[in-house]
From TrEMBL:
Residue ranges of every copy of the Sphingomyelin synthase-like domain listed in the record: 163-234
Predominant cellular place of this UniProt entry's protein: membrane
Compartments, as annotated in UniProt: Membrane
Membrane topology note: Multi-pass membrane protein
Name of the protein in question: Sphingomyelin synthase-like domain-containing protein
Single Gene Ontology MF annotation: ceramide cholinephosphotransferase activity
UniProt entry keywords in alphabetical sequence: Lipid metabolism, Membrane, Sphingolipid metabolism, Transferase, Transmembrane, Transmembrane helix
One GO process term, biological-process aspect: sphingomyelin biosynthetic process
PANTHER family tied to this protein: SPHINGOMYELIN SYNTHASE-RELATED 2, SPHINGOMYELIN SYNTHETASE
Length: 296
């Protein structure tokens, strides 16, 4: 295919192909995942064995407990997420990138909700405060969900009162998903700062453990869930756009149908990463290929 035909296809794709309502539906997947997490947490809080000591953990044997370290984690997490949000909002193909982020994060949180519902373990520290336990009822669960929903799990906004969401770290899912968005969708010219992102992400994860908010296995599982969901989604997306979906070993994944639905009107993720800041400052037609977007 010659360059002119490629440009024409890209213009058509930018103008008419992407259905923005699917991005909204992907956002609902994320909200659903978060709501399910809150409902499960509100339910299992009364089932956490608070009378048992913390489980043995190799990291806890090597490093002291510093509860305030969680503030470092949350500052870094918000920094990475805001950087990822900037990349997504100003990306040339923003409606695709944001859609994929919402979907991957939502699937990860749904998986997390299933895991924390399956297993409740003692809290990682004797200093962990947990609210009073009582007999579960629908009204109690609703009250707890409402009281915790808007803090988004960030203890800086609202101190933890519910316990039990240990298996698969939610902070780690946020960190790793945001980090992968930065790595995959950032313009090539800023790739030199990825070492910095990796370093602060590692510091954030270590701070989770030092603060005794999670066991080491929780953080490890959070990393595995976030990376595998993100990579499986994008692997299926790539194969789908090359008409090789059923040759991909991930085609047996339970998220395959979701990927097909959200990718029908999109383009493979192997497009050039440009930040079209100019389209926000001036009303420049997105298919005017003579007017370059702003690479950073």
């Amino acid at each position: 295919m010659n360059e002119q035909n490629s440009n024409n296809i890209l213009c058509s794709f930018n103008d008419t192909s992407v259905k923005k309502k699917k991005t909204f539906l992907a956002f609902l997947v994320l909200i659903f995942g978060w709501v399910i997490n809150n409902i499960v947490l509100a339910w299992i809080h009364d089932r956490v064995p608070l009378d048992q000591p913390p489980l043995p953990d190799i990291f806890f044997n090597l490093f002291p407990e510093i509860p305030e370290a969680i503030e470092i984690t949350e500052i870094i997490m918000l920094f990475i997420l805001f950087n990822a949000l900037f990349i997504m909002v100003f990306h040339e193909h923003r409606w695709i990138v944001v859609r994929r982020f919402f979907c991957c994060a939502g699937i990860s949180y749904i998986f997390r909700a299933i895991c924390i519902a399956m297993l409740q373990v003692p809290v990682p520290s004797k200093n962990t405060f947990c609210g009073p336990q009582m007999k579960s009822s629908l009204s109690n669960i609703i009250d707890r969900v409402i009281s915790t929903f808007w803090s988004a799990g960030i203890e800086t906004f609202r101190p933890r009162i519910l316990c039990g969401d240990l298996i698969v770290s939610g902070h780690t899912i946020c960190l790793i998903t945001g980090l992968q968005v930065l790595k995959l969708y950032s313009p090539r010219k800023i790739h030199f700062i990825f070492s910095f992102y990796n370093l602060i992400a590692l510091l954030a994860i270590l701070s989770i453990l030092i603060a005794r908010k999670h066991y080491t296995i929780d953080v490890f599982l959070g990393y595995m869930v976030a990376t595998n969901v993100f990579r499986t989604y994008h692997s299926l997306s790539y194969s789908y756009h090359r008409n090789e979906l059923y040759e991909n070993l991930h085609s047996e994944s339970i998220i395959k149908s979701l990927v097909i639905y959200f990718e029908k009107d999109t383009y493979s993720h192997f497009f050039d990463n440009y930040l079209s800041i100019s389209s926000y400052l001036k009303k420049i037609p997105t298919c005017n290929l003579d007017k370059k977007n702003i690479p950073i």
